[in-house]
Design brief:
The chain is an alpha/beta fold. The chain is 38% helix and 20% strand. It has a single domain, classed as CofD-like domains (Rossmann fold, 3-Layer(aba) Sandwich). The chain has 12 helices and 14 strands. The chain has a 7-stranded parallel sheet with strand order 5-2-1-9-10-13-14, with helices on both faces. The chain binds ligand FO1.
Length: 316
């Protein structure tokens, strides 16, 4: 029986479906491959925003309003830093700070990002495999009207205001795919590969840019299914809709499906959106994709897996 699922995810939306999948599947039936293109060094610390969004979502620690960081957070460190005239454009809550300090300490003693992530997951009671896309540095860069910007400079410091023209993933050509991630994609009992409703340009594309990962997905016999991050012409959170418009693309789930067209066999659009024009090799499914509650996450996880199951055996 084919029963392993691999999910690719980035920030907040992706973390929500990843959480739904962990509740729908036994822990050893799921591997999560997480974007690390947003990682950067700040205040001497190694910050991995997407790994943290996923870990906090799975551990029930995520802040439901901000989407990033921990809930019931306190900000004493930030206030003290501000008082000293320090750099405060990137907000680090007190509890969240512990994650970055501990990650940085372990990396400095020579542990890999995968090993550190596994330890952090164990400490937070997370049983599923949370795998950084690579242990090597890959850094997302954004080409804007103001030239090339580092990702967090664009995303947080400039609040996604510069219009985007292109993206680059520095280091992706030579970065080695995380070995367990690659092995999971090569399993012959793979039930589905799920592309979570993460930003296609800056959360999923960096994963696909890592040498070997896109090829492994294409070579897999399992159905590949993506879930829309766009509902009714809007992104629930983040700049996906703004980016689509700035790149001259239609702001719709269908446009995201076209972006993934060479990779997917299935695409889940929102139940309230019109069915897109047919796309060669891609079957569209409808589901309620807005995830307000934990039940919504689980429902979407089951709907996505069921849709993928109908596609089994359809790959050439
Ligand atoms: N996003 C913000 O918009 N402002 C912040 O100050 C901020 C701080 C932050 C700290 C830790 C962390 O793990 C994430 C944080 N994020 C913040 C979110 C993050 O930069 C982005 O959501 C992701 O990189 C995009 O997926």
């Amino acid at each position: 029986m084919s029963d392993h699922v691999v999910a690719l995810c980035g920030g907040v939306g992706g973390a929500k479906l990843a959480h739904g999948l962990t509740l729908a599947l036994p822990p050893d039936a799921l591997s999560l491959i997480v974007n690390t293109g947003d990682d950067f060094r700040h205040l001497g610390l190694h910050i991995s925003p997407d790994l943290d969004s996923v870990m906090y979502a799975l551990a029930g620690l995520a802040d439901p309003v901000r989407g990033w960081g921990r809930r019931e957070e306190t900000w004493t460190f930030m206030q003290a830093l501000k008082g000293l005239g320090g750099d405060t454009w990137f907000q680090l809550g007190d509890g969240d700070l512990a994650t970055h300090v501990e990650r940085t300490r372990r990396l400095a003693q020579g542990d890999s990002l995968s090993a550190v992530t596994a330890e952090l997951c164990r400490a937070l009671g997370i049983a599923v495999r949370v795998l950084p896309m690579s242990d090597d540095a890959v850094r997302t860069r954004v080409l804007s009207g103001d030239g090339w910007l580092d990702f967090q400079e664009y995303f947080v410091h400039r609040q996604c205001q510069p219009a985007v023209r292109d993206f680059a993933f520095a280091g992706a050509d030579t970065a080695r795919a995380q070995p367990e991630a690659l092995a999971a994609l090569h399993r012959d009992d793979l039930r589905a590969i799920v592309i979570c409703p993460s930003n296609p340009f800056v959360s999923v594309d960096p994963i696909l840019a890592v040498a070997g990962l896109r090829a492994a997905i294409r070579a897999s016999g399992a159905p590949v299914i993506a879930v829309t991050p766009i509902i009714g012409g809007k992104a629930i959170k983040g700049p996906a809709a703004k980016m689509l418009a700035e790149l001259g693309l239609e702001v719709s789930g269908a446009a995201v499906a076209r972006h993934y067209a060479d990779l997917i066999q299935g695409f889940v659009i929102d139940a309230l959106d019109p069915l897109p024009e047919p796309l060669r090799g891609v079957t569209f499914f409808r589901a309620a994709t807005l995830m307000r509650t934990t039940e919504d996450r689980v429902r979407l996880a089951y709907a996505t897996l069921q849709a993928a199951d109908t596609l089994r055996g359809t790959r050439a």
